[in-house]
Amino acid sequence: MEPVSNQFLSDYRAKLVSAEQAAGLIPDGAKVALSIGAATPPALLHALAERARQGAARDIRFYYMLLGAVAGRTIFDPELVDRLIPMSFFHNAVERGVDKVLGEQHLVDFLPAHFSQIPRAMVEHVGVDTLITTVSPMDADGYFSFGTNADYAIPVARKPGIRMILEVNQHMPRVRGDCMVHISQVAALVEHHQPLLQASPAPLSDVDRQIGQIIAGLVDDGACLQMGIGALPDAVCAGLEHHRNLGIHTELLSPGMAQLVRRGVVDNSAKQIHTGKTIFAFALGDAALYDLIHDNPDAEAWPVDYVNHPATICRNDRVVSVNATTQVDFHGACNSEFVGGRQFSGTGGQVDFVRGAYLSRGGKSIIACHSTAARGTVSRITPQLTGPVTTGRADVHIIVTEYGWADMKGKSVAQRAQALIGLAHPDFREELARQAHAMKLEA
Q1: Which residue range or ranges hold the Acetyl-CoA hydrolase/transferase N-terminal domain (predicted)?
Q2: Cα–Cα dist 403/265, whole Å
Q3: Of 36, 112, 114, 151, which is closest to residue 352 (Cα–Cα)?
Q4: Which of 133, 156, 191 is the last residue of a domain?
Q5: Which of 133, 165, 191 lies at the terminal end of a domain, its last residue?
Q6: Active-site choice (251, 300, 337, 402)
Q7: pLDDT of residue 2
Q8: Is 300 annotated as catalytic?
């Protein structure tokens, strides 16, 4: 890297403060956009939590998705959520932990939105006034890379008048693409160098591997991949090791996808846009993933309102989108975010890619699940959903369980019901057939 000019070094030093000083720049009543996963800034969160404990921070709302455990230990300590208020676009263990401690009267509030719409929701509808995130060290021209996370952070950073506080971390990879901000745009800088959050892949079960192999068989050489989060997409990646000339255009870049790049399975040569490049909105995984994207001209991070826009997705041919769900009803509609009567995860980018993949020439949108839940006592194929519709029946394309796959397109509701019963666990098929008969859904 070229040496930084004296002008930018002077600006940098003038804006460099302690985490405590930076936290003091966020006023009561602020609406703060907080970055996902590896870009969540731990030093700033610790300082904000300490201010709240001392009674010096009140009524600060944080808008975000998919935070690491550090948030639960700091700003979302259950004792502080009356002062530092979580406003989640996508729940995970952090929100479920707060809910468990505080009970039914204090459930973390949830904002339904497709991932592609979150930047506009934050800027236009919420009106966030502050952005805090982790970035890579400044380059010779005074720019910081947002590294693992362009997603909603870059669109928020471009909002006029935004108060931007950056935590500079030498471990954050310097990533190319549309993910840079200049020192002149920054209100304050904090230096804090610690290894990034790593998300270990969930162990794969035999059922995961079965589903992974079924889906891998639906992927042609030269296809362009999007994979969601969790064990099932990881299992699909494991099943693709003998494919060739695959591409990646995805919201989440995961270790499984990075492994396909390293093995040469992915070379992005068959893509129609960003040919030769792996495109993602955010990356979350292990050190090997972060090493892969660091200063790599063939890997680029772009804002999620571009990456996840169906009009962008469909510009590549043969897009294969793979996402998981928790329930599928007889009509083919999917609940992918609600479990046990509570918000469990979120809408995310599932519908963005369901629609974008189907619009792609030769594209396939795949939604997968185990046939059962609760240790085999509950069927995930069900007459009616017990939660909100994440992906509607008119959008669903291919459904996969360990018992096979079924194409919903071109099927009547009755035909869908019968096809889905065939994907259910054998222990539930007789009862499901009786329910379909009572609902007059016999093909």
Answers
A1: 11-193
A2: 27
A3: 114
A4: 191
A5: 191
A6: 251
A7: 64
A8: no
